[in-house]
Specification:
The protein is 33% helix and 23% strand. The chain is built from 17 helices and 21 strands. The protein binds FE2/S2 (inorganic) cluster and fe (ii) ion (FE2).
Length: 457
Amino acid sequence: MSYTNERIAQLVRADSVHKSVYTDPALYQLEMDRIYGQAWIYVGHDSQVPNLGDYHATRIGDQDVVMVRASDKKVYVLYNRCPHKGAKLVPDGCGNAGKFFRCPYHAWTFKLDGAHLSAPMKGGYEGTAFDAKHPDFAMRQLARVESYRGFVFASQAPGGPELVDFLGGVVSSIDNLCDRSPVGEVEVAGGVFRVMQTSNWKVFYENLHDTMHAPVTHESSFVAAREQAAEMGEMPLELHIMDGNGEPYSFWEKLELHAYEHGHGYMEGIFNPGAANTDAVTRAHYEVLEKAYGAERASAILGQNRHNTIIYGSGSPHTVFQQFRVIRPMAVDRTLIEIQTFRLKGAPEAVFKRSLMYANVINSPSSNVMADDVELYDRCQKGNQTRGGEWTSLHRYAGQDRVVDGGMQSTNGTSELPMRNQFKAWKTYMLASNRTTIPIAVEACSAAQLGDDCHAA
Ligand code: FES
Ligand SMILES: [Fe+2]
């Protein structure tokens, strides 16, 4: 089906959404252009590329990209494509390219900022339109790249809001994650987990603030945790985290859900080992923060009890346990989740170990908790592919969302405000079809036009 703006607008109502947004490959393809081709998307953390030539190859929407540390010490984000025959230059994941990229197909080389460096047997290009200085023979940089406290984002669109304005109210989550370090810096450490989900990418974003599912979907894991704790005669933190999902509805109703422009948001509450300030790990953490920031600020930093934050299109940082679940759409019914864990520089190693524990218990492929969710994401995908109905419901507390400073807040922690907010953003992106992601100056140069006047600056 081809989609006019009018048809797209009809897919999202104030309190429901048409199921085709999860299942139609044509809409998915439009999303790759109109959302992932426009928005600021998290590429990676600059600690993943600390040294000259270090790279981290990943995806922005359906585009293979590579983040790399160049000789000027800056981080660049390039399309992962050799301009000769188009080969993907480096494989997915992290590595070191050395002082330059060298294509494994015919050995064209490129500076780490993407500029063309050399091609073997140059004589073969004499008398042709080949021009090493022309952008058509370089690796192309993404239109915009910005970093916020080491978190590198890129946008394929030449125009649009600055990164910090785009992030809006969720900047405070990145700040709190970094401020938990006594030197204000974090680094990706301990490797990453990857989980391939057989569901549409938007299902995961909806679930991140879906408090109504916790005591239902996670019954299998919190009941097992409680049984285990009873056997042990105590409830260690690992089990306590799993047990939390079994809180009654009255607990979830009290949580605060915050929603911001572009589909972002965060949830206050649930569980914060820092707030109690009683266990040995937290006390040691507090002490280094107190030394660095003073008692009042140290308490405020550790007291910020924020559960999942949503950076729509990028993923979900978790400040209290220092994780980032990076969400990468792979197909209309496939989504790759990469779970990054952060070490707080200067904080006790036990804090990092606690982050690794949380990643194992909640986010790893072998987590009992994640398995609960992944099963339901798959069921949503399959159910929405049947002819059993057209719409999915976002009615909970619809019409009761409150406008607050710079965003919206739910009247009840079980509200479906976050989902309504995400689809409001989705609709705005998807209707903005008059934007372009392609740098015009370069695109206008066909092979026949190559000449001095066609060299983009
Ligand atoms: S495809 Fe890269 S050098 Fe030929
Ligand atoms: Fe869940």
